[in-house]
Design a protein that fits this description.
By secondary structure, this protein is α+β, with helices and mostly antiparallel strands. It has four helices and 13 strands.
Length: 187
């Protein structure tokens, strides 16, 4: 059990095919709109024109223990081309109390590619972000973009040369989101 500012987060560790995997269960999530001016500032900091967003995935702020601005790219190429104004995005994120900006591209009904700029953490990008994955699960459920019982695969870190995979599990009748991933030793 992790005691966080947002509440208690249970974590279960299992072994699968010789690999340890951890599953965190989020606090109760919620999703809220984003003010047009804040969205415009985020897009300006990212250098993304509004036309590069996927209209099927409206911008929202999602919370599952921490706040994340969710923006969906219309193409994989848009997602891959990440060069942003670090200071400008950091200032917006601090003002909105955001942990990351969750940038996503939908490959299929349950497979997504994601990137998470993390200037408030002092780095350009986080290669694997369980908290953002939980918030994204809340986002897609809240908007009815997946079924009530769904298992999503999020590919993150590919564009950094540190590919990883997070599994997001949504269960009908349970508002909490489960995120599973394996750790990697860094020397």
């Amino acid at each position: 059990m992790f005691a966080t500012r947002a509440g208690t987060v249970p974590v279960e560790v299992t072994e699968r095919e010789g690999v340890l995997q951890a599953t965190l269960t989020s606090v109760e999530p919620h999703v809220e709109g984003v003010v047009d001016a804040d969205l415009a500032e985020a897009l300006a900091a990212l250098g993304w024109p509004a036309a590069d967003l996927d209209p099927a995935f409206p911008p929202r702020i999602a919370f599952a223990g921490a706040r994340h601005l969710v923006l969906a790219a219309a193409t994989r190429g848009r997602l891959a081309d990440l060069a942003y104004d670090f200071a400008r995005l950091e200032a917006l994120m601090r003002r909105l109390d955001l942990t990351t900006v969750q940038l996503v591209w939908r490959e299929s009904a349950t497979v997504f590619h994601v990137r998470d700029p993390f200037p408030v953490g002092g780095v350009v990008e986080d290669p694997a972000t369980g908290a953002a994955a939980a918030a994204f699960g809340a986002y897609v459920r809240d908007l009815g973009l997946v079924t009530e019982d769904a298992v999503l695969t999020l590919h993150q870190g590919e564009d950094l040369g540190r590919p990883g995979r997070l599994t997001v599990t949504l269960r009908a009748g349970d508002p909490r989101v489960r995120v599973t991933g394996a750790g990697v030793r860094l020397d």
